[in-house]
Amino acid sequence: MFKDSKTLELTISMVTALLGLSYPLFIDLINKINEKYNSRRISEKFKNEILYKLFNILMIACIVELFTFPAIILYTGNPILNIYLITFHSICVFILCMCMICLYKRILTYLDPTSLLNFIRNSDESPREQFEDIMEILQSASSDTTNSELYNSCESDLIEHIMHFQQQELKTRKDYEK
């Protein structure tokens, strides 16, 4: 039982550290995304990422575990239940750590307009969503005269999207006329 309590103490410390570091960091970085693109659309896109939602769910689960598991362990004399609870909590903390690292990498993608543009190009979003996201990056790039390559790249992507929309519209009209 002594080893179990040390493991629990370690995971509690890790969750506390993650809470103390990650939430303020992520909120600050989301604000930087807002400032960088001068738009809420990109930051809302980040907040809707599955990774960000998973992080929030895991954080809440770990907080609930922090308060309930020690009480259960102290009041139950069942060592098997204690081992399961500590193992479950340790797994949640491990996944939370991995999620935090991946989320930080994703934030770095969002903070770099060129990386974000490539991310949007490779995403599974609808062409309309991609078009609107690229427009946000284009508007941001247009205010920065040193970033002409990004601006040109966004423009060419937008032209491709517009041509794709026109081809679809033409095809729809032809199918309708038949």
What descriptive keywords fit this protein?
178 residues, 0% strand, 7 helices, mainly alpha, elongated
Describe this structure in words.
The radius of gyration is 23 Å and the shape is elongated. The chain is built from seven helices and no strands. α3 (50-75) runs antiparallel to α4 (79-111) and α5 (113-121) runs antiparallel to α6 (127-143). The longest helix is centred in the first third of the chain and has 36 residues, at 2-37. The protein has 178 residues and is mainly alpha-helical. It starts with a helix and ends with a helix. The protein is 89% helix and 0% strand.
Whole-number mean pLDDT: 79
Q: Output the number of helix runs.
A: 7
Unreliable spans:
none
The Rg value, from CA coordinates, equals 23 Å
Helix content: over 70%
The helix/strand series, from N terminus to C terminus, equals HHHHHHH
Taking the alpha carbons of the first and last residues, their distance comes to 77 Å
**In total, how many beta strands?**
0
Main beta sheet strand tally, sense and closure = none
Estimate what percentage of residues fall within beta strands: under 5%
SS content category: mainly alpha
The coarse overall form would be: elongated
